[in-house]
Amino acid sequence: MFTLDSASSPMRQFKASLGHILLVEDEDLIRDTVALALRNEGYDVSVSEDGHGALELLQRFEQTGGAAELVPLDLIILDIMLPGVNGLDLCRLLRRQGAMVPILILSAKGSEADRVVGLEVGADDYLAKPFGMQELIARCRALLRRQRLNVTGSQSVLRCREIYLYPQECRVTVRGEEANLSPKEFRILELFMSYPRRVWPREQLLEKIWGPDFIGDSKTVDVHIRWLREKIELDPSSPEYLVTVRGFGYRFG
Ligand code: CA
């Protein structure tokens, strides 16, 4: 079972929000209290009471491409002891599938060993129950801030496997060599790498990169994607980075 925040229901327009958090917790009282506290702080919160519900929700994001209909997730708060798939397995699975979203693990187990296991399966932070709400909120804020720094690239490099993009220097290296990208190609790649695995419909790319006043059709996007593939893919005819998502658009990673 999962519940999408009404604010993040399909067709919702983006509004000022501090971020969209998925909370996976089977204990009603904790789930309701944490969700309420986070909403009061200005976050959109979707909730799931078990691991299967969380997986279902995440697959829905995947299938719809997130960008097209649903607000993408910025953070997952994951309880370890859950009915069905437990939090550690879910975390491991998400990382194996390439999900880059920050994950904060919650657990009744507070020992050092559990903390280490939590971090080893790919979580970004770990909080033992019982915890203070202010501490949880502070940690969420820190994870989201770190995520934004990565996303905007104001301090760091965007990286996906063998591709490095240096936003401030406007340059890209592919398999250790400088790639010679045009400004448009650079901006397309930067947008894709800022939102790994997010599916971008052609119309949305046109609007983001070419601007709302652009007159032309979405074939322009296909042409630029083809050029970009020739510069970053090992085999442009069978791309591993810039992937076509049939019926939706393009995805990176
Ligand atoms: Ca639990």
TrEMBL record:
Domain OmpR/PhoB-type: 155-253
Keyword Manganese: no
Modified residues (4-aspartylphosphate): 79
Domain called Response regulatory: residue spans: 20-144
Biological process annotations from GO: regulation of DNA-templated transcription
GO MF assignments: phosphorelay response regulator activity; transcription cis-regulatory region binding
Coiled coil: none
Gene Ontology cellular component list: cytosol; protein-DNA complex
Keyword Phosphoprotein: yes
DNA-binding region positions on the chain: 155-253
Entry keyword set: DNA-binding, Phosphoprotein, Two-component regulatory system
Annotated PROSITE patterns: OMPR_PHOB, RESPONSE_REGULATORY
Protein name in UniProt: Response regulator
Species this protein is from: Petrachloros mirabilis ULC683
